[in-house]
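Course assignment 3, question 2. Fill in each field.
Student: A.L.
Task: Predict the tertiary structure for the chain below.
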Amino acid sequence: MKTTTAKKPEQRQWYVVDASDQILGRLAVKIANVLRGRHKPCYTPNVDCGDNVIVVNAEKVRVTGNKENKKEYMFYTGYVGGEKYVKLSEFRARKPQYIIEAAVKGMLPKNKLAEAMFKKLHVYAGPEHPHAAQNPQPFKF
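Answer field:
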């Protein structure tokens, strides 16, 4: 009996996900699984066989508890005293797509494939996206 390995897919699917009234962490897990290809029967951990995901209405994503005011994202410039903390509520006002991008990026593996997987994620704050030519299908969770 021989072991078969998955090959890189020739054609990737495009899926669109509406983030309105979805809980952030649960949505990020599902998106990360699609980016990795875990929804396919040919899934192999060392091959990037995932699909492209378009997330719309990122500004309407929900967080549970008091995370809206307590959750902070940390940035560091590399200099002494260069730490900066930004609350989730400030990001929702300024750049709402970063909230979903950061959550999904944290759920991808920490290896060389993660960058290729993350490039297949397209997040938009509003309901419109410029990927109509790819004919994205709504993903059923």
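Instructor remarks: The two ends are 35 Å apart (CA to CA). Residues 14-64+97-138 form a domain with the Ribosomal Protein L13p; Chain: A; fold (CATH 3.90.1180.10).
Grade: pending
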